[in-house]
Amino acid sequence: MGYLVLARKWRPSGFGDLVGQGPAARVLKNSIVQGKIAHAYIFSGPRGVGKTSMARILAKALNCEAGPTPEPCGKCDSCRGITGSASMDVMEIDGASNNGVNDVRELRDMVKYAPSAGRYKVYIIDEAHMLSESAFNALLKTLEEPPAHVVFVMATTEPKKIPLTVFSRCQHLPFRRISATDIRDRLEHISSMEGLKISRGSLEIVARAADGSMRDSLTMLDQIASVSSDIEEELVMELLGITGYQNLAALLGAVIDGRREEVLEEIAGFADRGADARQILKDIVKLTRDLLVYKLSRKPDEALEMGEQDREVLKTLSQTASSEQVLALLSEFLRAETGLRFSSNPRVALEVSLLKASYFGSFLPVGEALRKLGPGARIAAEYTSGPEEKNVPSAGRPSRPAAHAPAPKKAMVGDVSVQPDNGEEAGEDKAPEEDIKGKNKKTPDPAGDDEPKDPPGAMKTAGPGDAGGIFAALAERAKNPMVISAFATADVSIRDGKELVFSFPKGMNTELFEEYLKKDQKWLEEEASALFGAPLKLSISAERGAGLSKKDLRQKAASMPFTREALDLFDGKVVDVNESK
Hints:
CATH architecture of the largest domain: 3-Layer(aba) Sandwich
Shape: elongated
Number of domains: 4
Structural class: alpha/beta
Number of helices: 26
Strand content: 5-15%
Largest sheet: 5 strands, parallel
CATH topology of the largest domain: Rossmann fold
Radius of gyration: 38 Å
Strand order of the largest sheet: 2-3-4-1-5
Distance between the termini: 91 Å
CATH class of the largest domain: Alpha Beta
């Protein structure tokens, strides 16, 4: 006989030989021991994980001369016939080429006859999802009530395409992807038996490239062994067109650090070695995902299937990038994969994607960026910062003030309108003010005092108990973000020495503010009364009227220079707008 490829030569012959499918093997072995053999099974899972091999092992276990047994001997005529695909009682049918209703009718007629030598006739339908709807319908009755000597096994990579009427008549056994560690150990055993000198690092490269398929890994090993019996990592990467972990780490490190010239040089080096741009990006995605798992997992050694050398690479990369940056990189690379697939110039598309991602390291966290945009964004910054950002001054900027809310624009006490002293209005001529009733104008004191006298019941503007101090203290002590935002949005005043008034702009939707202010009403009244020195009751003035529509407000807001800059910075959009004075 001619050369037999490794995938066929080392095909599993028993339940114990099948790597990575312990649960499915355990179900079938216990079914045989207990005599509870189902009349139909569905084996589903990725390619090359052992579905058809498991079906053959089941057939041998049922028809072995020592059986039915969970451990077929592999030596009797029945076992040897099934192993060599020469048994008349085990029929493998290709569902892709025998998918018509006539094929199923022929199969249905054959089912009636008893097995020629064994106990059971086993029908293995490979790629069962390729059967037509008419073929499935023709198979239904036979599949539900076959003769006692018949067992159906349908193997498929796409179980969702099998009709539910068929699915409900079968036992479903899902097959899993095989871990890279299990593949590597199996390849190591086969290599030693075949006399191949191959390094452990080379086996790890093959195992990762197989992506969970044992058959693919054996095919790759066969290809490599045909070139040389002494195999090193460089030969493996060259033959399989795989980029090395170290080279990928150098490229990703350049992207993380923003070394753009080095990014272009690394891509050029890959191109010179004949690497495909799409494969490079695919490998970069895997490496970035591994880096993210390494940073977020409590036990990265258990979560990642790789050798010690590769883990050291991840450890080095993790010291130069935050979790947020790695997550942003992974998101960008996944988006770029779609564009690269249809690009007429994949290398340019890859360069653009990696160069774009190289700027992520210079971006600021949202909270810090909002603080830099100006004092108007301070409230938003406070509640978009992560726990590690709060109250931690960044390099090159002063610490945040203790108060969580900006000072109110205006405070009203009694019948007097008071403007907080911010230092910028010093020296300005202030026009005399009128009280609310419009009666008495404020005039300088005849004795020469430049400051107007406070009317009866008014609160002094100087000292820790002034109106601005009261509102700032209340905003600082508040725990609910909506209450804090209400202090920054509304005109807050003390009316007639009896009411703490929140006056919201006309046309503004204030339902949410009102709801949270009323929830904290008792707290607000107690705190404000203590600070003011007299009992105060909460009052909300929400003047609703016909203003601009929400659509017009969004358009108006989006056209403002400040808003445009923020939208460009965060790649965002205006979701909701409230009109203010």
